[in-house]
Amino acid sequence: MTRAVATLAVSERTFREIADKLRAAGYQHLFMSDGSIDMYGIALAAAPRPVGPVCTCLTNQLGPHYCEVHAA
Ligand SMILES: [Zn+2]
């Protein structure tokens, strides 16, 4: 039986965060042949804001100079 799915395009950064968490939790079977993720039964929730500064060296595109943790 096949089931139609709608596709919601998100940023590469957002996709990577979700994909990494799902893989780390053992949900490899959710990845479809085209690389998208079938999230049927999985709800998205906003995580609470971090209390302290966050390292953005790998995600801010501007380099460590602009990282709250590593800029000196
Ligand atoms: Zn950093």
Describe this structure in words.
The structure is a single chain. The protein is mostly helical. It folds into 2 domains: 1-41, no CATH class; 47-72, no CATH class. Helix content is 18%, strand content 0%. The protein contains 1 helix and no strands. The protein has one helix at residues 12-24. The chain is elongated. The chain starts with 11 loop residues before the first helix and ends in a 48-residue tail after the last helix. The structure holds zinc ion.
Task: Summarize the SSE layout with pairings.
Blueprint: H1 12-24
Residues 55-57, 64, 67, 69-70 line the site of zinc ion.
Main attributes of the structure:
elongated; 2 domains; binds zinc ion; 18% helix; 72 residues; mainly alpha
The coarse silhouette is: elongated
Strand content: under 5%
Low-confidence stretches: none
**How many structural units, i.e. domains?**
2
What level of helicity do the residues show?
10-25%
Q: Number of DSSP helices?
A: 1
Secondary-structure element pattern, one letter each: H
Give the C-alpha Rg.
16 Å
The tally of beta strands, per DSSP, is 0
Structural class: mainly alpha
Largest sheet: none
Cofactors and ligands: zinc ion
